[in-house]
Amino acid sequence: MSTKIRIGSHVSTRGGFSGAARTSDRIGGKAFQYFPKNPRSLHIKMPDLKDAMACAAYCREQDIVSIAHTPYPVNMAAGLARGESHYRLTVESLMNDLVIAEACGSLGIVVHFGHLNNEDVLLGYQNIIRCMNDVLSSWTGQAKLLIENQAGDHGIMGITLEELVKVRELADYPEKIGFCLDTCHLFAAGQWNVHDTHSLLQKGKDLGYWEHLMAVHLNDSKYGAGSKKDRHARIGQGMIGTKALQELVLSPELAGIPFVLESEKGADGTHREDIAEVLSWS
């Protein structure tokens, strides 16, 4: 029995949040990702709540799900390394993203695990947990904080499923935290043997990872396993390949999970072609 795949891509909010939802629908996507504000800045954004609510309404009507992706400067592992004011700005920025995601009806906000330049991983883990606690202590919405695994290009932190599960477990509000799996990152970090996907699925099951997975960044990889290079490739055009991606997407463990493409666009300037390719697997 085939399972309908919920697939989409990262889309621009140039036409507003509701415009992003309509763009996703127009190219055949039933899931999409967007930046809630400038992806290069932590500055707080006062959202257009009318537009955000229009996005949520459109998604409900068309059966589309969305996730927000926090700005790139967010680094939960840094703690006070850049001073108290920068830490407070990080916390406030994440809270701001949660408010916007909630207004848009999104599942949550994707945030990278984080890293410390001095590779003091224990301190890094402590900083991540503290940051999540400070962000979520007063959060009462439905949108969750979704921790994303890393490729290893910035260091050794955040590349294993064990780390993600453990920091969630140690946080004060684990019920407000979920996961976003990036397939390229997992492969590049040497954590996925594409010739033995069963072992990955079993590991996730043993760790209790899959039950808290809320989204997947479905990306092929331009570089090989263990390369530690975060360079996405289009579906079937990288080192992971169609067969392994298809096996993962169609696994019972990932049934119902939304998949989002973050790779290069097709000739028409959209991900329409890759969305159709993935949909053909079901």
Explain this structure to me?
Helix 1 packs parallel to helix 2 and helix 3 crosses helix 4. This protein is α/β, with parallel strands linked by helices and 282 residues long. It has one domain (7-279): TIM Barrel, CATH 3.20.20.150. The strands form two sheets. Strands 1-2-3-4-5-6-7-10 form an eight-stranded parallel barrel. A two-stranded antiparallel sheet has the order 8-9. The chain has nine helices and ten strands. It has helices spanning 16-26, 49-62, 84-103, 121-136, 161-170, 183-188, 197-207, 242-249, 272-279; strands at residues 7-10, 31-34, 65-69, 108-112, 144-148, 177-182, 213-217, 220-221, 232-233, 259-261.
Main β-sheet, in a few words? 8 strands, parallel, barrel
Which class of secondary structure composition applies to the elements? Answer: alpha/beta
What's the CATH first level?
Answer: Alpha Beta
How many strand units?
10
CATH architecture designation: Alpha-Beta Barrel
Rg to the nearest angstrom? 18 Å
Tell me, briefly, the overall form.
globular
Counted up, domains total: 1
CATH superfamily: Divalent-metal-dependent TIM barrel enzymes
What is the percentage of strand-forming residues?
5-15%
Taken in chain order, the helices and strands follow as EHEHEHEHEHEHHEEEHEH
Query: Might you state the CATH topology name?
Result: TIM Barrel
Number of helices: 9
Low-confidence blocks of residues: none
The helical percent reads 25-40%
* Average pLDDT number: 96
What spatial order of strands do you see in the largest sheet? 1-2-3-4-5-6-7-10
Terminal CA distance = 9 Å
